[in-house]
């Protein structure tokens, strides 16, 4: 059951996805379709349909791409990426509220996540790209803890457990299959696309959003954040 909306004195930890949430499109899917062989499309669909784990699928797909293409891939992402409207204002508003913390927890890879975020000063938890070999190898510094058996890759529930103090109201923001386990553990979810359908199906407490202006409006009206 959803808890009542909180007042301005409540502590909050906002956990925000990156690909498809902060950005308008999923960068991993775009990278794979542009730089990996066509057979990787089958792996993409297997991940989306939960037929293989996120860690297994992402690792297999990037292993098809030569490490020598790193700079080209970063440039590809930067030329095409679109930040969802209102994100910078959202970050500014959250950082101004003394009772609210924001972290970005992403199934994306550091070599393109950090360039896209630029000088945005927010803690980021994501996977690591290793370019020492002939092909890109993905490393998983935030893998599942002993309470998760889903082989997530970057395990968002595990990250939450590692940083939460226990007295915060957990708020999740996401869009896809990689955000479902995080959403299950949140007291409020801002959701779109696949995650919105999951929230509606399972009756998880949620608010739909199109951009971060929508999120700021709800946080101001219902969460008591002074903006």
Provide a quick synopsis of the model.
Dephosphorylates 2-hydroxy-3-keto-5-methylthiopentenyl-1-phosphate (HK-MTPenyl-1-P) yielding 1,2-dihydroxy-3-keto-5-methylthiopentene (DHK-MTPene). The chain is α/β, with parallel strands linked by helices and 227 residues long.
Describe what this molecule looks like in 3D:
With 227 residues, the chain is an alpha/beta fold. It has one domain: 3-Layer(aba) Sandwich (Rossmann fold). Helices cover 40% and strands 17% of the residues. The protein has 10 helices and 7 strands. It has helices at 27-35, 40-48, 54-62, 70-80, 87-96, 110-117, 156-163, 180-184, 193-202, 212-222, and strands spanning 12-16, 100-109, 124-130, 137-139, 169-174, 188-191, 206-208. It has a 7-stranded mixed beta sheet with strand order 4-3-2-1-5-6-7, sandwiched between helices. α8 links the parallel β5 (169-174) and β6 (188-191). α4 (70-80) runs parallel beside α6 (110-117). The longest helix is centred in the N-terminal third of the chain and has 11 residues, at 70-80. The radius of gyration is 17 Å and the shape is globular. The model is unreliable at 1-5 (pLDDT under 50).
């Amino acid at each position: 059951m959803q808890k009542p909306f909180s007042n301005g004195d409540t502590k909050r930890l906002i956990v925000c996805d990156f690909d498809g949430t902060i950005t308008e499109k999923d960068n991993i899917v775009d990278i794979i379709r542009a730089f990996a062989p066509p057979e990787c499309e089958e792996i993409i669909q297997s991940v989306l349909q939960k037929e293989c784990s996120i860690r297994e699928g992402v690792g297999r797909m990037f292993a098809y791409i030569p490490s020598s293409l790193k700079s080209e891939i970063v440039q590809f992402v930067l030329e095409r990426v679109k930040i969802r409207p209102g994100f910078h204002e959202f970050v500014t508003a959250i950082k101004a509220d003394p009772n609210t913390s924001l972290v970005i927890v992403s199934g994306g890879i550091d070599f393109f996540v950090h360039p896209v975020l630029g000088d945005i000063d927010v803690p980021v938890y994501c996977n690591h790209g290793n370019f020492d070999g002939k092909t890109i190898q993905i490393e998983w510094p935030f893998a599942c803890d002993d309470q998760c058996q889903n082989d997530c890759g970057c395990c968002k529930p595990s990250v939450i457990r590692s940083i939460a103090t226990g007295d915060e109201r957990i708020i999740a923001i996401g869009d896809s299959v990689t955000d479902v386990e995080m959403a299950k553990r949140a007291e409020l979810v801002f959701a779109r696309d696949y995650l919105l359908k999951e929230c509606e199906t399972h009756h998880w407490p949620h608010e739909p959003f199109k951009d971060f202006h929508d999120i700021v409006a709800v946080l101001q009206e219902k969460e008591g954040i002074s903006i």
